[in-house]
């Protein structure tokens, strides 16, 4: 959504924008989109193209936007610059999927216009035609970011606008009277996440406003009234608050509300990260259970995560798999960035504290091959599991179950001597991912080697689930109570697996499952390689 560091790069392009700010047809494209970047495209890196994480076919991508489920299809919109591999004038890219795993990239949904770039936002299905665009219209609510106003030093250069689709997201029309929520004078005023609040029969907008969240309400998506503010002195404030989300979840028959607030910088392992609060929302005010700072993902590479709309009782989450500390420099080409796997959210109580849990969505079974399972694997001295796991693919799921968690290291390596090390430090009570020797890292001094996450569970044993793709790993510990995401860039695929433990550990079950997005008789999709 934002990245004003690149403002000067893009200003010239916006100056030529069409004066028509209400449509997003191809007629606008030539005037609204600046010339292609002059920088040469680096050599292609197909070895880093994910098998089952969404990436655009080419060019820059960051935050997921407008995620909505409609008539059997998951729609993913995303921050996209289609003329370069680094951040630039933001568009809404678009992809669709039957299962959030196998993606088909679609034409760009929203282009910049005379009101500015198309920054982050959300989308809803207006089943009751409250906005008057049509029954079951798909309505996008997004931030218009005016780079001219930003350069001029104003505090009103971000405003909220609408676009709507009457054909299931294929084509979009911008509302003629945009913006629908004008900036009252707050420098960072963006990323509207809108949902229907049934108890009060109104739309509620959760908006990032510099160092806090501001809630607004509307009967029709067009006329908005301020409800309340939250968070000025609560939670982590190492950077600006961005990309919020608000939704209910049930625990032991009681409804709690979860407020997600993405933060950049200030994450637990540096740079961007996703924090959350658990509390109550009465249709006007959010009241947290306490002031404890909690993180949805402790790894260095999950950011801007929000949830899908219109998915019934399921709360499904996806984030951007990168970090603003080095996102513009990662060694992939001709695209930059991927999304995380889809995750299903829940709540769990541990030591009297209510935590958000995150588990791989059940739809990932659609890409699972035949698992190889080992029983009662004991390690103290290093043991090589490569041959026993029966699959040399780097794109796989590993599941480790132990009745007594001890310190251990799982080492994935290659013939070049590169190693990705994951495991648990019992003394520190921390899970960790160490990518310091896992391949290319000289592109940024901030591409830190070792990331850690606290173990929140007090159970004796655990189940640890790891999803590996060409250049990423996502770790789910204690049934999703602790989550970590990390990218890495080996010069060769990591196809060997070793296990070691200083004190000794036994995994009652250890399984490896190859993953691919190509089902039997199915052609590969575009955008998810």
Automatic annotation (TrEMBL):
Pfam families per record: Glyco_hydro_32C, Glyco_hydro_32N
Domain of life: Bacteria
Gene3D superfamilies recorded: Exo-inulinase, domain 1, Glycosyl hydrolase domain, family 43
Record domain Glycosyl hydrolase family 32 C-terminal: where: 373-509
Swiss-Prot/TrEMBL keywords: Glycosidase, Hydrolase, Signal
Residue numbers spanned by region Disordered: 23-43
InterPro entries: ConA-like_dom_sf, Glyco_hydro_32, Glyco_hydro_32_AS, Glyco_hydro_32_C, Glyco_hydro_32_N, Glyco_hydro_beta-prop_sf
Name of the protein: Glycoside hydrolase family 32 protein
Species name: Hymenobacter aerilatus
